[in-house]
Design a protein that fits this description.
Layout: H1 3-14, E1 19-20, H2 34-39, E2 43-48, E3 52-57, H3 59-66
Antiparallel strand pairs: 1-3, 2-3
Helix pairs in contact: 1-3
């Protein structure tokens, strides 16, 4: 996964914020298998009517990606 993308998701977790995927397109989010990350309990996804698909790291995902 792109290091910039990891940094954004880790920072959002620290601020307890959800990140719309539309802001992550330039970091290659379309190449990431979100279903696999969700199955591994590393990320949460949520649909919003105004923002579309939103992402947030789980605590397990935060610890996994923060050590990189």
């Amino acid at each position: 996964m792109n290091q910039s993308l990891i940094k954004i998701l880790v920072n959002a977790k620290e601020l307890n914020k959800w990140v719309p995927t539309r802001f992550l397109l330039k970091y290659g989010i379309q190449k990431v298998d979100l279903l696999k990350l969700e199955d591994d309990d590393l990320i949460l996804t949520k649909r919003s009517t105004s923002d579309g698909l939103l992402l947030k790291l789980t605590l397990k995902g935060y610890h996994h990606f923060n050590k990189q």
